[in-house]
Design goal:
- The structure is a single chain.
- By secondary structure, the chain is of the alpha/beta class.
- The protein folds into two domains: 2-86 and 174-198, D-Maltodextrin-Binding Protein, domain 2; 88-172, Periplasmic binding protein-like II (D-Maltodextrin-Binding Protein, domain 2).
- It is built from eight helices and eleven strands.
- A six-stranded mixed β-sheet has the order 2-3-1-4-11-5. A five-stranded mixed β-sheet has the order 8-7-9-6-10.
- The chain is elongated, with a radius of gyration of 19 Å.
- The chain binds 1-O-pyrophosphono-5-O-phosphono-alpha-D-ribofuranose (PRP).
């Protein structure tokens, strides 16, 4: 039995389709149910940011999660494979009509990815006032809560429609197949088989 942590949303749906071709059975969560039990798998539907803790504590053996979440949380889990879908960029952005001045003392940066932002600016030896938010990050510079943002960009629509621009790309991210360290040893054969099946062509 393999316990799988799947993120809610598009990436989870895409991953479940791959499990469908692996198991050759129809896999569908019933209405609002969060657990899907089959003969060989238990699938759990989990909020993206919560996936690493389920893996680290071995509630799930394997899971699918964005590299942004892995980098932000730095938990002890094994990164098995870059799935090469769910591609996004983590960027620094600011209003189109002004230039983001990195030498400004206490430059204010709004983000939900506090650790990624902090470590990026620390590496550049820039002193930045990081303002932790939980969503609608693009709003912050429009209403002067912040000078700029560190956020995820996928299509670029949100940035564009809010008159922001990309100043720098911090990293490219995509979905990863991850595993609990212990499960990887005790269920190695099954997990390696799944890893092989998930390998992008
Ligand atoms: C994310 C991100 C951007 C948006 C980028 O937010 O924080 O706001 O998606 O996508 P785009 O480049 O395709 O427009 P999310 O949808 O998770 O909502 P949130 O504001 O509640 O975090």
């Amino acid at each position: 039995m393999i316990k799988v942590a799947l993120p809610k949303g598009r990436i989870g749906t895409q991953a479940l389709e791959i499990f469908e071709s692996l198991t050759q059975e129809k896999l569908e969560f019933e209405d609002r149910k969060l657990i899907l039990q089959t003969k060989n798998f238990t699938f759990m539907l989990i909020r993206n940011q919560d996936i690493p803790i389920y893996i680290e504590r071995q509630v799930a053996d394997i899971g699918i999660v964005g590299l942004d979440v892995l980098e932000e949380q730095q938990r002890h889990i094994i990164r098995l494979l870059d799935l090469e879908f769910g591609k996004c960029k983590i960027i620094i952005g600011s209003p189109k009509d002004s230039k983001l001045d990195f030498s400004k003392p206490n430059l204010k940066i709004a983000t939900k990815m506090e650790n990624i932002a902090k470590s990026y600016f620390a590496k550049k030896a820039l002193s930045v006032d990081i303002i932790k938010l939980y969503g609608s990050i693009e709003l912050a510079p429009l209403v002067n809560l912040a000078d700029g943002i560190v956020d995820i960009v996928e299509t670029g629509s949100t940035i564009e429609q809010n008159n922001l621009k990309i100043d720098e790309v911090i990293m490219e991210v995509s979905a990863y197949l991850v595993a609990n360290e212990n499960s990887f040893y005790t269920k190695k054969d099954e997990i390696l088989k799944i890893q092989e099946f998930f390998k992008p062509n």
